[in-house]
Amino acid sequence: MSAIKNDDVSLGRFISLVLRHEPSAAGIELDGEGWADVGELINGVCDTGRKLDMETLERIVHENNKKRYSFNEDKTKIRANQGHSIDVHIDMKIATPPDVLYHGTSAAFLDSIKEKGILKMSRQYVHLSKDIDTAVKVGKRHGKPVILVIDTAKMSADGFVFRISDNGVWQSEDIPWKYVNDIKYP
Ligand code: HQG
Question: Which PANTHER family match (predicted)?
Answer without folding.
Answer: PUTATIVE PHOSPHOTRANSFERASE, TRNA 2'-PHOSPHOTRANSFERASE 1
